[in-house]
Fold this protein.
Amino acid sequence: MRRTSRDIRTANRYGVLRQIIARSPVSRQDLAAATGLSLATVATLVGELLALGLLTEVGFEESAGGRPRGLVGVDAGGATLVGVDVAETRVHVELFDLALNVLDRADEELRPGESAPEEVADHIARAVRAVTGRTRDGGQEAAAVPGSPGPPGAPERSGRGDGRPVLGAGVSVPGQVDREGGVSVHAPRWDWHDVPLLRLLSERLPDHPLHLDNPLRACTVAELWSGAARGHGDAVVVSLGTGVGAGLALGGALHRGATDSAGAWGHTTLALDGRPCHCGNRGCVETYVGAPGIVRHLRDLAPGSPLFRPGDQSATLAALARAARDGDPVALAVIRETARFLGAGIADLVHLVNPEIIVVSGWVARLLGEELLTAVREVVARRAPARPLAGTEIVLSTIPTNPVALGAATFALERHLSDAGAAAAAERRRGGARPAATPRAPRP
Amino acid sequence: MRRTSRDIRTANRYGVLRQIIARSPVSRQDLAAATGLSLATVATLVGELLALGLLTEVGFEESAGGRPRGLVGVDAGGATLVGVDVAETRVHVELFDLALNVLDRADEELRPGESAPEEVADHIARAVRAVTGRTRDGGQEAAAVPGSPGPPGAPERSGRGDGRPVLGAGVSVPGQVDREGGVSVHAPRWDWHDVPLLRLLSERLPDHPLHLDNPLRACTVAELWSGAARGHGDAVVVSLGTGVGAGLALGGALHRGATDSAGAWGHTTLALDGRPCHCGNRGCVETYVGAPGIVRHLRDLAPGSPLFRPGDQSATLAALARAARDGDPVALAVIRETARFLGAGIADLVHLVNPEIIVVSGWVARLLGEELLTAVREVVARRAPARPLAGTEIVLSTIPTNPVALGAATFALERHLSDAGAAAAAERRRGGARPAATPRAPRP
């Protein structure tokens, strides 16, 4: 958990690439200003990223009274990345270019009862092969999802990644994950315990590196690289779904904690002795602001409401969201009650973490949108002192695509950068052929 | 809030000096192993610390089959540091050597009604002059506290800092502090708002740099440099007094947050709609585990208890602690009730932050000691999942002296190191005379 020189080099490499993705094309001088690093450090890092084939030189801009400045951009026509969102009832896969634009998508349904690790691994592998165009190993090409061409204006749209190298695939699975070991430690939905998912996947997808993590951390990294948290030192990403979490992005990097399980905010206590939670405790944040908790607010406030869609909490919340936008008093009361708890929980994050920005993400937040956020901001303003609150924005996620798949692909990009950095360092130690990156006496 | 190259150099300088203080005398090789930095980086940093006069070369140790390794240690006979703990009823000042051993102490009482900023500043200045031996500017020498010779075995014990240079003084004042501006933003006890305390102190103590901060952050930095958090990547320092807080030490450095107010854990919500808090909300952690909250548990459980010392909460808690150690059932019930809330709050920190260690500090923790900690660990074990909990130790602070004064002096040491680093960097940019630290092309 200590930051070593290599961690710092890796973090700087991430920071520079993140800004290049955001600003492409961009000069080294503008990157130095955006990252706070020296121009010489930026030049070295850009040289490494060019040597790794992640960037291209894309021309020059005039500088005021000096020689023209070279511009670099992400090589969006080069290699690709895969992001896999394994949810409870389906596997969703997206293929990305190196600027993290979506090139292609594929889905596989997980039917009820299909919960054996090998079955789930088969579905994941089939969907990944569908987007990478690799159909050997006996897999069928799954149909790409039509009508989902990615964000407008993205320059690269091959429709497939055929022939383009895949730098890696990130796989997000729900529950507790041992990232280093590639193990699903506990996935309650399928009653998985210590499933070696990465090994099962490597057998099926031997052609590129694979990385395992969980949805909360994927969402957080997606916001850090491509969303509202980019450029902020300290950010919290509150994820609202059936489960609830708060990913911490501190100093520009994901805070993982001692056992890689930081962010379990859904099981912090908001009302000791309150609503029972499936975790065995009472009054957890999740019981009041997760999807089932919000449905329960509706049941408590209006037991016979026509907003209920029995057995379908997503449809119930969608009906609630529509009714709230139409000014329905019951729906607005449910939003207010949810905001009373969510606002208290977010005020707690302001008190404890004092971040620059809190990004509210997840499908529940997407449905309830600004109606919920406006009510939450009012509660937070009543509860948190002026000084920390003045430094904290509370915003909805603006990522237009699936943030979990995006974050999973981002993990694959991060890992590629850090592995490449380690390889370059090893080459330097052997006295390798990259003089521009051969420090005689490394500086602190 | 972004980490720049200079932040990283400063953090590395802190990390190396912290390990030298812990292990003195120590070889550069052992420092590289302890910090995770490269030997070359450690050698550069040790060179800088030697040039700053903070270290001395103290001989050699034999290495296995190589040339003897040079050992360095802190120059404990050199410069000194001052730490000031301004509490509600007294100013406590300690003088430290560079190994952070206490050399001398002085106290000034703040009488009821003595709350004008100028009066408090006069008391602080008088106590500081008492330990630094500087009596000019008309100040009287205050009597050093007898019978408090500092921890046993400390090599330097001049009894005074006379003649030794003072690198700086750190001053901790309660409440909200604007560290950069040197302003006490709000100190409720004295009804201070935006008091420019650092300016008032600089007028009275013009001879050395002064730094303002608050007790929670001072305690946290004391644990990080000299206490149980040293050597841990992620730590939380829970401070229990009349007020309550949780300082976050993440990645080996204090996490300050966007407006320098992170750690206000005492005002996070443990029981929405619970006990009223002076902050205007209800159910804050502080209302259940701060000193007045514990006294209230006693009143709720045993209204006529002989443990009460009317009007004196410290004496009541001391009586409670003695009774608990003697097995008194009422005292034990109060400890259990306190632990029920404190354990839930600490389990929340395990869930959200997932630190390697939680250090419980402050005068309430010192009084109730292992009786409280044992009960807390049981509650946390029931509430937090096995995986994060397995990675987290929960311990009492082991700092034997005043942690606030120690932390305040540590801030002065940190600031000296970072100012010296900035000056060295400026000298390098001017092409100065320190070739060993002149990077032509800084590395990432």
Observations:
- Residues 178 and 259 of chain B are 9 Å apart (CA to CA).
